[in-house]
Design a protein that fits this description.
The structure is a homodimer. Chain A is of the alpha/beta class. The first copy, chain A, is built from 18 helices and 13 strands. Chain A folds into 3 domains: 249 residues, Rossmann fold, CATH 3.40.50; 149 residues, Rossmann fold; 41 residues. In chain A, the strands form 2 sheets. A 7-stranded parallel beta sheet of chain A has the order 3-2-1-4-5-6-7, sandwiched between helices. In chain A, strands 10-9-8-11-12-13 form a 6-stranded parallel beta sheet, sandwiched between helices. In chain A, helix 1 crosses helix 16 and helix 12 crosses helix 15. The longest helix of chain A has 38 residues. The C terminus of chain A is likely disordered. Chains A and B meet through helix 7, helix 16 and helix 18 of A and helix 7, helix 16 and helix 18 of B. Chains A, B: It is found in: Membrane. Chains A, B: One of its GO terms (cellular component) is membrane. Chains A, B: This is UDP-glucuronosyltransferase. Chains A, B: It catalyses: glucuronate acceptor + UDP-alpha-D-glucuronate = acceptor beta-D-glucuronoside + UDP + H(+).
Amino acid sequence: PLLGMGSHWINMKPLLEKLVDGGHRVTVLVPSASLFMNSSEPSRFHYERVESSLSIEVMEKFMEEFLHFSIYEMEHMGYVQMYLRFMELFRINLKFALGNLDGVVKSEEVMMKLKRGNFDVLLADPIMPGSELVADILGIPLVYSVRFTMAHHFERYCGQVPAPPSFVPGAMSKLTDRMDFWERVWNFIFYAVQDYFLSGTGKPTSACELMGKADIWLIRTYWDFDFPRPLLPNFKYVGGIHCKPAKPLPKDIEEFVQSSGDAGIVIFTLGSFIRNITTEKGNMIASALAQIPQKVLWKYSGQAPETLGPNTKIFNWIPQNDLLGHPKTRAFVTHGGSNGIYEAIYHGVPMVGIPMFADQPHNLIHMKAKGVAVIDAINTVINDKSYKENAMRLSSIHHDKPLSPLDEGVFWIEFAIRNNGAKHLRVQAHELTWYQYHCLDVFAFLLALILTIVFIFIKACSFCLRKCCGRKTKTKSE
Amino acid sequence: PLLGMGSHWINMKPLLEKLVDGGHRVTVLVPSASLFMNSSEPSRFHYERVESSLSIEVMEKFMEEFLHFSIYEMEHMGYVQMYLRFMELFRINLKFALGNLDGVVKSEEVMMKLKRGNFDVLLADPIMPGSELVADILGIPLVYSVRFTMAHHFERYCGQVPAPPSFVPGAMSKLTDRMDFWERVWNFIFYAVQDYFLSGTGKPTSACELMGKADIWLIRTYWDFDFPRPLLPNFKYVGGIHCKPAKPLPKDIEEFVQSSGDAGIVIFTLGSFIRNITTEKGNMIASALAQIPQKVLWKYSGQAPETLGPNTKIFNWIPQNDLLGHPKTRAFVTHGGSNGIYEAIYHGVPMVGIPMFADQPHNLIHMKAKGVAVIDAINTVINDKSYKENAMRLSSIHHDKPLSPLDEGVFWIEFAIRNNGAKHLRVQAHELTWYQYHCLDVFAFLLALILTIVFIFIKACSFCLRKCCGRKTKTKSE
């Protein structure tokens, strides 16, 4: 049996499905205030409802506030103001997480069920803290599924993965791995500020200690998406875990796609959060899309803009993955969510990025650096062949692995079950203090030693010198 | 086609065999002064003889000297003397490598053949330097097969893999990953001395630059043998590449093994280098072996000692892997060569170590730390159950991988062929200077900035103060 808990549900689900295929029993803890998990839909998992100490209305209000802040407020803010607001939201998120956690560890009923369940492993996303504590109480291995944390703070401090700021750009810093001097200064400050802030929340040491016990960290990225960096034996890179081959399109969509002829199609979506945009913005986008020779499939649930061209069709819902895998697809206009980007990588489709919020700018900067995306310029991506070539290259990098990300994820979860954790993959760095890790105690000792030797040498010399001179003086005075 | 060159032949061969199975053509460069490669034996590889500028007699004499030094001289030497002698041998080894290299790059005929061969990749062991240059001249991807280099110097400096001396014991330092303060001091010094010495040989920068271009580093160890440590995306751990299931034993050996009853057997070998030991040592070993209840198979080509017990049988040659995989095997008495150790790990057999020279003490310290070997004490390993349990645990760790080491090695070699190298796995650290890597330029800048601000602030304050006081004084004097 296997215990699931967490938020980034889309990436967890294929893993759990595959584990059920392999004969595992899976229990999913669903907080009552969850916005994305639906415990009533028929499923092969056992859902266990957990009473959050906060209501779903509060959660919804927060989510709305967060979106409004990210999309509309942020651009009018200064850096410091933005940062403070962001950290406030971070604190609210922590409150929600602790609210969900209360529903688990403070509920005798739930804890009793979990203890009796004899679970083999706990799978969790550390974006919602708390799973560490549950795994620790139950005494079972913990496997993380991680996208990233701000500036890789938790991966570095709790997971002990080395990340020299000279060539590992902090997550969300909007930098690539090729940094000039000023970018390295900025990256260094970015790490430092983040570390300073996060070391101030509660008691990071003990939380970090618990996080550091995680047996396997499944990192939802790979070297097709991310920049190569040092890793540890228990960090497994499984980006694109949810990707799958394209299925045939529904008849009406296939007909529209085929009508595009040699020009092909463009897929346009701003993700599931953006249901409405202002009339002004809608008209602007629509008239821009009207100018390209491709047919455009626009996923949008708001009202059709007036300037909509004959080449553009609005859909309430599109089979995004099947469209991305269609041979007629020329470009993917995206807000830059990591799931959509991975589907484009999987199928080798170049991208146009219109980043809105959260990790979207970060993601699109990666794609731009790898030469498969431009930001806000659709014609370039279609007419400049290098983007398609690079997209095909990334796609081949994505597929050219000994194991698919899904198989790799499942392998390491089952590994943690078979071996009751993964202690032999854990570096000893976890047992060191920060000054021991950086050998500062060794430095201090060697420096003291050298200084002592120099001191003794000088003293001895001066002593000898005085003796000699003393004798000489005596001799002279005789 | 694929080009092989190098010395650690036993581990290269299974890789090349498997590549030939997969339809690749393999050419092996054999130096005329090679002691271990036999280009005349029938094989599925194409052997290309390379005229070393040094004769095989010189090579043999050096090897003998090296063995004599390692086994007989070393124990009577002080640390400094030993170190100097070792470095002298290192320099001679380099001379041999350059002698072999001459036979390749300075021979028009060989270079012509290599250029016309249209090879896809060069596979090499960096213990014999030179392959980097050949790959660079031919403009083809380079895949390394590496056991380790002293203190991981080349992996760290040329491969850019991070190795904090606080928890990564330098190779050959005889330390584990659990170090107390004094051991960390020693490890730190060990790294420093090694780095100082190796940075002095020739022009390390340009050699390192060439080595840094290696696309894939196949490291012949894994977390069953080694301590977990940071790695890089292009470092693949393939320890145990030569291991395979046991085949049935020859009839006479099987009969002797079965005669051991429940007590089981002990396998005793000091490797293929030790053909003779002194009569005194032989008698000592034989009488010790006579005292255990197990039957002993002793691989030895010298004269049978007088004190040989009835339970011990001397063999000129033993099917070591098949014996290690036999259910009656209780312990493996070994000199601690890494190939034999990996076969014992593969089959889950506890070990008794009698380290002789080279990396043998290093290897056995790893096995001791993992609880599967003792050094010089056969009864403990057989009677204390923890050794067998730990051996079985290591064996399960060894087998519990998504891919076998051989398949993994072959995968990444073919990967380098398919993708014309592996540039997307290469960290940007290769492009940085050492002070950039450690952010020292950033530190210096930020420090200067802070000092300037403090300086201006103090100046401003003192200026204001003087103004104020000046006015006050004036006011007073009015």
